[in-house]
Amino acid sequence: MSILQRNPVYVVGIGMHRYQFPTDTPYVQLGLAAARQALADARLNWPQVSLAVVGSAAIGMAAGRVMLRHLGSTGFEVMQVENASASGSTAFRTACLQVAAGEHDVALALGVDKFGDGRRAAGKDGLQALSPTAHIPLVKFALLTRRLMQDHGLTEADLARVAVKNHGNASLNPFAQFRKPRTLEQVLASPRIAGALTGMMCTPRGEGAAAAIVVNAAGLERLGLDRGRAVRVMSSVSSSERLADDCPPGVPPIVELVRQSSAAALREAGLQPDALDLIELHDAFSIEELVYAEAIGACAPGDAAGALARGEWAIGGRCAVNASGGLIGMGHPLGPTGIGQVAEIVRQLRGEAIGRQQPGARTGLAHMIGLGTMAVAHVLQKE
Amino acid sequence: MSPTEPPRLLLGHCQACGTWNFPAISWGCRSCGAGSESLLAKPLPGPAILRNAVTVHAELAPGLPVPCVVGEIELAPGVIEEALLQVADESELKLGTAVEPLHLGEAGGTSPWRFVPVKELAA
After folding, report:
1. Contacts of A139 in chain B (CB under 8 A)
2. What is the ipTM of this complex?
3. What is the pLDDT, as a whole number, of residue B121?
4. Is residue B82 classed as helix, strand or coil in its secondary structure?
5. A147/B95 Cα distance (integer angstroms)
6. What residues have CB less than 8 Å from B108, skipping those under 6 apart?
7. Which residues of chain A have pLDDT under 50?
8. Which stretches of B7-121 are assigned E, i.e. beta strand?
9. What is this structure's pTM?
10. Which chain B residue has the Cα nearest residue A133?
């Protein structure tokens, strides 16, 4: 039995700073807006939080302390985690495991990032790649798109339908970077980036912040928090890609990674894929939603395009995939993204996602990918 | 190698487990983790095979002119690497066929290597 099954952990507060195109706003302002909102949502005061885990890929050294001292120098423990696109998810996982272990009763997970300051380790390994695109995820996923279009008969219209759904969902989300619904024709006619991927099938660059406050059972009890709005973190899983030789024949390693990590998260939670009412996943490029949602079990094998076209993944469908708008519509500022997924699922499970509520939602999966090779998955449930 | 001999593309063959690695000089075997001393530099064991390719239209990498064609090339069993293809158009390529490395030196800009389709031998 996992530690989260033995020692329950709950999300009791969420906060967001809207994702947006790059501005001159200091990251501190973005992060504090999300943190203060999460504290107010939980009805907690800052001195009651004893741990802060900050997820950021591009701010720099000690972003947490520099930012959070403006809430008060209460002696809180603070750390920063960097895990590419999964930085926020990893910060959330770290916070959950710390409170489950009893090291702290109340922890803040906060993702914040500004675009443009990130530095990549991939180019510093002292090895010469054959192509300057070797570490650019967009090219990797454009190649995956072609392969899957060829092997599984996916069409450009199938890819575009992901973007149409997610831009539509984002238009209903006040925290989203894009707020305009798009038609199939608009998505297909937007500038081609690589292979079959057009601009509207890709996530934008941006900035923002997202926060979640987690507590253990002792914290929930001691602080007299509202159990009716608490959402339980049922499981937390993190892993990375294996070699193609170790994957089933014909299955790309990234798809096998999603299958295994989501299956582990559901197994740890004691659930089957059909229990999921919501999935927030890493749709930086539209092909990803089609293959990841299928790998998670949101449709029968080979039926991803069909399930999407039939509206099964729309808000109101069998399982709403990226009700927030996903990375394509809501945006992907790196550090905040994984915690933004958690915030969306918590809002939905509480029944507070005004204008984009998945009816009767009780269970959700937040699944994030970092550097196209690492996965972090959390199952959340309203008890 | 003589001063006039063009550079050859080499792979690292792990003496501990037999796995092929790219690049030849690396920090360890990607499969068994044996140290770099276990990797023996060898030429490609057979023809490189083009497995996939796309045209890149947007400027994604500094110094890489677009449009350009990027492929996934199987250099040895299990070693699939992204590489630039020297073709005028993606339509010149046929997936599953042999391609060969061409060393352009400094003229290659961001990468000295390009791959070109292997010309079919005249009957």
Report:
1. 54, 56, 60, 70, 82
2. 0.93
3. 46
4. strand
5. 10
6. B114
7. none
8. 10-14, 20-21, 39-43, 48-56, 68-76, 79-85, 98-103, 113-117
9. 0.96
10. B61
